[in-house]
Amino acid sequence: MATLKIGSKGAAVKRLQKLLKARGFDPGVIDGDFGSGTEAAVLAFQRSEGLLADGIVGPRTEGVLARKKAGKLASALDQATPAVVSAMFPQTPLGNIKRNLPHVLAALKKTGLHDRMMILMALATIRAETESFEPIAEWQSRFNTSPNGHPFDLYDNRRDLGNRGEPDGERYRGRGYVQLTGRFNYGKYGKVIGLGNRLLTKPELASEPKVAGELLAAFLKPQELRIKEALSNEDYAGARRIVNGGSHGIDRFTGAFLIGANLIT
How does pLDDT run across 219-253, given as a tens digit for each residue? Predict the structure, then answer.
């Protein structure tokens, strides 16, 4: 089946409409015209099956609709070259990109996030967090350190982060590409990437390039569908909020994503 979307017409659309109705998602009149009713049925089906809900019927949606196994998304890893990433990071030394990019791409491949959209998301997230394309540790600021306090004392007793008092604030401060923060997250994501409790006992590992890349991928993976829905709607601020919870670095994020989208096809 060719890719079908709003405005498509013909026998393929009629077959799609029949499949939707048979699966319990009524598109309305079976007329071979992909209109708003068919789009609504497709969106409902995609959400039901955990697919990207974009209202477009490509090979993956068609396969699941026809009760076939969903095909794998095409990998774009070979297009994410240092030269392409350098264009997305115009202020960054090329050496930093060459040194750290392989670890990021390896982590995305391992986690199954190597399609075009998620590669762009990962790279744009790195630019929003650290223009240098290097894992970083959080600096002191008025948000984490009180005027007369020791470094990161405002984090020490943050129950939402799982911290238990001094020295947890400084010990589990933000590190890596997504600024992993707090005792709870160091414990959780250390297990996710196969390090067990090592991040709890040696939290500085989160700033090592290989580990930072794996943490980035582990953080993005559970949010994959939400991220793709936001990006499909060109809601770059929404995609950024899923990772950061706010709009920090949104200009750098959007700029990097759009540059990359023209280079990675």
Answer: 999 999 899 989 988 999 999 999 888 888 999 99
**Environment class of 220 (CB within 10 Å of its CB; exposed 0-12, middle 13-18, buried 19+):** buried
pLDDT tens per residue across span 33-63? 999 999 999 999 988 888 888 899 988 888 8
The answer to whether the beta carbons of residues 244 and 107 sit under 8 Å apart is: no
Among 94, 96, 95, 115, CA closest to 105: 115
Q: What is the pLDDT of residue 70?
A: 57
Q: How far is CA 41 from CA 21, 28, 37, 62, 104, in A?
A: 9, 9, 6, 13, 37
**Which whole number is the average pLDDT over 143-150?**
96
Extended strands (E) in the chain: 136-137, 175-176
Q: Are 184 and 207 in contact (CB under 8 A)?
A: no
**Structural contact between residues 113 and 231, judged by C-beta atoms closer than 8 angstroms:** no
pTM of the model: 0.79
When pLDDT is cut at 50, 70 and 90, the band that residue 69 belongs to is: low
- Burial of residue 121 (number of CB atoms within 10 Å: 0-12, 13-18, 19+): buried
Among candidate residues 103, 82, 104, the one with its CA nearest the CA of residue 93: 82
C-alpha 208/C-alpha 214 separation (Å) is: 10
| Across 209-225, average pLDDT | 96
Cis peptide before 147 (omega within 30 of 0): no
Could you give the CA distance from residue 206 to residue 172 in angstroms, rounded to a whole number? Answer: 10
Q: Closest Cα to residue 123, out of 243, 246, 3, 19? A: 243
